[in-house]
Amino acid sequence: MNSLTRRQALKLVAAGVALPAGLSLTGCATASRKGAGEVIVIGGGFGGSSTAKYLKRYSPDLNVTLIEPSKTYVTCPGSNWVIGGLAEMNEITQTYDGLNKRGVNVIHDMVKSADPAKQTITLASGKTLSYDRLVVSPGIDFKWDIHAGVNSATADVLPHAYKAGAQTLLLRDQLRAMPQGGTFAMIAPPNPFRCPPGPYERAAMVANYFSKHNKTAKILILDQKDKFSKQGLFMSGWETNYGQMIEWVSATDGGKLNSIDVANKAIDAEYGLVKADVINYIPPQKAGVLAATMGLTDAKGFCPIDPVTFESTIHKNIHVIGDASNAGSMPKSGHSATSQGKIVAANVVLSLAGQAPMSAKHVNTCYSLITNDYAISVAAVYDVIDGKIADVKGAGGVSDAKASAQDRKMEALYTRGWYKSITDEVWG
Ligand SMILES: Cc1cc2nc3c(=O)[nH]c(=O)nc-3n(C[C@H](O)[C@H](O)[C@H](O)COP(=O)(O)OP(=O)(O)OC[C@H]3O[C@@H](n4cnc5c(N)ncnc54)[C@H](O)[C@@H]3O)c2cc1C
After folding, report:
1. In angstroms, rounded to a whole number, what is the distance separating the alpha carbons of residues 287 and 270?
2. CATH number at residue 185
3. Is there a domain that residue 233 lies in?
4. Ligand 1 neighbours (beta carbon < 6 A)
5. CA-to-CA distance for 114 and 121, rounded, in angstroms?
6. What mean pLDDT value characterizes the chain?
7. What is the pTM of this model?
């Protein structure tokens, strides 16, 4: 759901752009335009794939190249369900067949560097490609230098499972191998980070597994912050479904981490020393490393952008979207990245046609499963207000705190439905 004014939509149509899905303008005919330009999109996740798809939809004659190293993409949405035993990996794995069929030139390679002055990128294979516009959506990477005792090799022993795939399975298998009555400790990251409800849905999914296979196990969340997304709903959902199995400790109440002894699986937090059987250390985050290599990041490690066009405020003709961008109050989510991808695609087409950009509203929804039959959600609409992307007051909210069991069950159905529709929207 994105909305444009009639003037903006007319501008899009005048530039030969088919209107984005969900938008309509009665009485306007669309026109087509030849030789629209060369656009390269980096990263075949939610942001990059949606941009590539919608570029081709809005301007079929545009040359669109998507660079992504993996042949398939395992979505983080749904990966907590795999960890909790409610889904299999094949259910959360997407291919690029749909994009190929739409005429996107998908190249499986890694971008090594870019030259913003010459408007070129260089791939790991050595090839150099030129662009008129570049869209960068490299996701996140981790800051390994914040806590003592950890480094990038730590993830092989203490999986973060915050990039889906092998990490998801490693964490799932550690859970399954845990002794009866053991402790699962999660270090939840500080803001800003990918998927604000992600750690807390994960705790519920781990509890779901334990409630069937390890009833005396304990889940301890040591948080690096004092509050979290949908907190009241999560806490009452945990208690309703899993009793006292999950303990959450805020940063102020002792969650703050000092160090981890990886070999001995021992955590030194303000809370005290914790010996755990499985440690899910989710490190502090920054934009995917490519963003820094390309000189697109600020001191905090994310990419400053123009709130309307998502064009980098550092390098011209490069747009940064998804988790890597500083998108005001929009959370770092697959839904946000998709919304941004669609609007950026429209603005890239407008810009190549010499037209001024349009400002459109964005949307985000995040569903979280607590059990297979109990889910909660949050939704919001965003607009550019006083030069920043901000929440539209009164548009959105969270699930009713007093919802019936039947309503929670319906939300669990919507959760699965959301997954199906968004992945179809991005890769279908
Ligand atoms: C456990 C968990 C649960 C989640 N659940 C939800 C949910 O329910 N709903 C929701 O909306 N969001 C959810 N998310 C968040 C969502 O996964 C991310 O916000 C989303 O993936 C961001 O999209 P992106 O395009 O920015 O990055 P990504 O999807 O990570 O895509 C980045 C892509 O860039 C590629 N890449 C990186 N560097 C290079 C390079 N140098 N050259 C070429 N390619 C490169 C990578 O291979 C990757 O495929 C969840 C996240 C987690 C961790």
Report:
1. 28
2. 3.50.50.60
3. yes
4. 42-48, 67-70, 73, 76-77, 79-80, 110-111, 137-139, 162, 194-195, 198, 202, 288, 290, 322-324, 332-335, 337, 366-367
5. 4
6. 93
7. 0.94
